[in-house]
Structures are given as C-alpha cells and as structure tokens.
Model the fold of this input.
Amino acid sequence: MIHLLFTVIFAEMALIMILLFKTPLRKLVIMALDRVKRGRGPVMVKTVAGTVFVVLMSSVYSMINIQNRDAEPGMINPTDQVLMARHMLEASLMGFLLFLALMIDRLHHYIRELRLLRKAMEAEKKQNRSFEDGKNGRAEEMKTMAEEMSSLGTKIKKLESDCEAKAKEAEAAEASAAALKKQSEGFLLEYDRLLEENQNLKSQLESIDQGILSESKKSS
Done:
C-alpha cells in the first residue's frame, strides 16, 4: 500500500512538473487530461478520490482508536506504536496524494483558461489589425478620391475656360458674319445701282445712236 502511494505521488509530482514548464510533453499531458475529463472520466476520478478519502478516514479512525488505547495507564504497546506510525504515514501519503490531484486539476483548468484567453486575445488582435488595415485602406481610398475630385475640379475649370473662349470666338464669328452680311447687302445695293446706271447709259447710248442714224439718213 505504501509503495503504491509513493509511486502515485511521484507520478503526480512528475505531472505537476510537466505542467509547470512549457515542453512538448505538456501538450500530450493536457490532451490526456482533456480526454480523462470527458465522458465517464470525471465519474471514475471522483470514485477513486472518494475511495482514497474513505481509506484516509479509516486510517485516521484507527489512529484515534490506538491513541485512546495508549491513553490508558500501563497499556503502551510497541506494536500499537508501529501501527500508529504506519497509519499516520498512510494517512499523510493519502492526504498528500489528494492534494496533488487537486493541484493537477487546478493547473489543468488554469492552463486551459489561459489558452482560451490567449486565443481570444489573438482573435481580438487580428480583428483590430483587420480594422486598422481597413481603416488605412479607407483612408487611402478617401485620399485617392480626394485627388481624383481635385483633378476633376481642375479639368472642369479648364473646360469652363475653354467653353468661355469658344463662346467668345462664336460671338466674334457671329459679329463678323453680321458685318459680312451687312457688307454683302451694301454690295448688292451698289450692284443694283450700278446695274441701273448701266441700263440708263445703255438707253442713252441707244438714243444717241438712233439720233445719229436719223441725221445721217436725212443728209443723204
């Protein structure tokens, strides 16, 4: 019994040392403990712990009985002293065994909680990084949009100035066309006047020619 208790205690101490330091064995131990705590594992562990606790109480009860017998005068027995020491050693080992088992359970629980917290923190960091990247991307998009808007504003101003220049050129062309129209109308009037004078001159020349012909006929 005592050899078994020492073996279990040393095994528990080895598990505690493995859980305390980050080594590849710790992952295997944590996976094994996770499997133990699934299904019927907790019931079996509680059953074993309850049995050890009952045996511990039995050893304590035996020690109390031996102590009560030794309390009577003239009843000190070396055998009872050996039994007392044996029961005390067994009770101490079983109490230490239960304490180490509780430590293993709490260490496993805290390691799992720490892993969950680290995963949550990593997910939060990734989310913050993605948010910052999206924010930076939006800032860059806003910057490019502002640059495009400024370039479009300059293009619009240039087009407005070009339109104003074209409008001025069109007005000048209309003014020149109106002047040319007036000038052509003046030319047409002058042409009509000259044509009328030409007709008058022709009629005068014809009358003169007729007068000369009539005078020549009279003289002959």
In short: The chain is about 95% helix and 0% strand. The radius of gyration is 62 Å. The CA atoms of residues 101 and 108 lie 11 Å apart.
